[in-house]
């Protein structure tokens, strides 16, 4: 069973962790090994709408402005983008792109940015947060997917039975945290001592994007790294 956000925060930072929930929005400043770290994210399988995307981006931008170089930890529990006409009319695509751009800018300015999927990560809510961090990690109980097989069948026009069969041997077609580890989207699972896992991630996570290389080494994405290298060689 996935950890509740408060239990997770307590394991990582102690009972006085300084993180608060405003509805489905998580934010605060915690201390880790004597140093401050900005924590921002979501809970309750939050759908990411315009307001929630902008609220998260505001925390990231404020951290850059007021605390240059401070690490950021993204706590991820989302059902994806908010499927509501109001948010579409307000430009949810631009709001989510703004969140992703803020996270990317923080990385470029030297902030260590880590993502942690502690419950559920679906679709655009995951793509514009954890997948843009220096690296994304997950708890073993987490659920990760971009698209269910029935939806994938509708988009690709391929039979569900074929996609189900393909998913048994190819992680690209399959949901699940282990498959995202195999593809390199999730760098590693955090198990046991979560403080030790965070400490190791803070020290060892590379700044360069190694997801394609990890996916090739783990057999989950066998062509991505080679294609990227060909593009770079041709540039």
Compact description:
The protein has 235 residues and is of the alpha/beta class.
Structure description:
- This protein is of the alpha/beta class and 235 residues long.
- The protein has a single domain (5-206), classed as Alpha-Beta Complex (2-enoyl-CoA Hydratase, Chain A, domain 1).
- The protein is built from eleven helices and nine strands.
- Strands 1, 2, 3, 4, 5, 6, 7, 8 and 9 form a nine-stranded mixed β-sheet that branches.
- It is globular and about 50 Å long.
- InterPro entries: ClpP/crotonase-like_dom_sf.
Give the CATH H-level superfamily.
2-enoyl-CoA Hydratase, Chain A, domain 1
- Please state the second-level CATH architecture: Alpha-Beta Complex
Fraction in helix: 40-55%
- Mean pLDDT score: 91
Name of the CATH first level: Alpha Beta
State Rg: 18 Å
Biggest β-sheet: count, sense, barrel? Answer: 9 strands, mixed
Contiguous low-pLDDT stretches (5 residues minimum) are none
Pfam families: MdcE
Protein name: Malonate decarboxylase subunit gamma
InterPro entries: ClpP/crotonase-like_dom_sf
Organism: Pseudorhodoferax aquiterrae
Question: Could you list some keywords that capture this structure?
Answer:
alpha/beta; 9-stranded mixed β-sheet; 2-enoyl-CoA Hydratase, Chain A, domain 1; 22% strand; 11 helices; 235 residues; Malonate decarboxylase subunit gamma
């Amino acid at each position: 069973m996935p950890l509740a956000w408060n239990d997770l925060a307590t394991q990582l930072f102690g009972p006085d962790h300084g993180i608060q929930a405003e509805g489905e929005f998580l934010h605060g400043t915690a201390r880790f090994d004597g140093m401050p770290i900005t924590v921002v994210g979501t809970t309750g399988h939050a759908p990411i709408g315009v307001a929630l995307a902008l609220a998260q981006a505001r925390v990231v931008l404020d951290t850059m402005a007021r605390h240059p170089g401070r690490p950021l930890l993204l706590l991820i529990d989302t059902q994806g983008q908010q499927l509501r006409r109001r948010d579409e009319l307000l430009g949810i695509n631009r709001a989510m792109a703004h969140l992703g751009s803020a996270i990317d800018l923080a990385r470029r300015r030297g902030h260590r940015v880590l993502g942690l999927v502690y419950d559920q990560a679906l679709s655009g809510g995951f793509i514009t947060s954890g997948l843009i961090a220096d690296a994304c990690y997950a708890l073993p109980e987490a659920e990760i997917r971009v698209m269910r097989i029935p939806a994938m069948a509708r988009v690709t026009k391929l039979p569900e039975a074929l996609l189900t069969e393909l998913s048994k041997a190819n992680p690209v077609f399959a949901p699940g945290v282990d498959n995202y580890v195999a593809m390199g989207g999730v760098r590693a699972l955090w198990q046991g001592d979560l403080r030790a896992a965070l400490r190791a991630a803070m020290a060892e996570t590379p700044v360069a994007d190694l997801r394609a290389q990890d996916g090739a080494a783990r057999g989950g994405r066998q062509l991505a790294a080679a294609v990227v290298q060909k593009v770079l060689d041709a540039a």
